[in-house]
Amino acid sequence: MRIIPVIDTLRGVVVHAVKGHREEYHPLETEFSAAADPVEVASGLKSRFGCDELYVADLDGIMRGEADLSLLARLCRIGGMKVIADAGVNSPSKARALVDTGVVGVIVGTETLGRLEDLEEIIEVSGGVPVTGSIDIKGEKVISRCAALKGVRPLEAARMLEDNGVGQLILLDIGRVGSEVGVDVSLVEETVRAVDLPLLVGGGVASIEDVLALRNAGASGVLVATALYRGRLSRRDLDSVRGGG
């Protein structure tokens, strides 16, 4: 199972994301970096937990459409770290700019996608870089600017994204992010049964038991942030899951 640490960046620093209340996000307090510097935090996650993947939520891109491409490029230059990023991509030009930073995965979130029809061209311009569709939900409904996706059930969104050519899915419960309240295992099981794509899950992970429950539900990977920063998960925990224990 893939264990992928998450950093949320805003105005050049890592912030602590909680339940999608972005106006209340503050710089992350972590022993990895006194100034919440994204490169230092990412490097600390790699050395402490042995992670070779990183999920970056570029909130400048997601909220204002102004992705911090230079920061993403610096993160991509960390040795042995593969970066996948949600930077508010909703057009082919934004996808191309993100690919040029060196990311190994482009994430298109339902939150920022304006039209389903744009996905085909986004996938085309991304070339050999895989495109992942992120089902962004709050209160069990999909958040989106796209009329076809807004307010639908996650399962419907999963099928629509699959039909429009993405190679992987993320189920991201924004209302649970940073809360450590646990995960909705039943929704994960339903989603896994509904599509034929790998599924990553984020939002609410609080313990190794949550990670194991997601693995048993059929998830291909888990996105984790707060549980790592607060010491709820150890290197031994992660190694046991990554090794199939």
End-to-end distance: 10 Å
Mean pLDDT: 92
Major beta sheet, strand line-up: 1-4-5-6-7-9-10-11
Structural class: alpha/beta
Name of the CATH homologous superfamily: Aldolase class I
Assigned CATH class: Alpha Beta
Oligomer: single chain
CATH architecture: Alpha-Beta Barrel
- What percentage of amino acids are in beta strands? 15-25%
- As for the number of domains, it is 1
CATH topology: TIM Barrel
Cα-based radius of gyration, to the nearest Å:
16 Å
Count the beta strands: 11
Task: Tell me about this structure.
- The protein has 245 residues and is an alpha/beta fold.
- The chain has one domain (2-242): Aldolase class I (TIM Barrel, Alpha-Beta Barrel), CATH 3.20.20.
- The chain has ten helices and eleven strands.
- Strands 1-4-5-6-7-9-10-11 form an eight-stranded parallel β-barrel, surrounded by eight helices.
- Helix 4 (92-99) packs parallel to helix 5 (118-125) and helix 6 (154-163) packs parallel to helix 7 (185-194).
- It starts with a strand and ends with a helix.
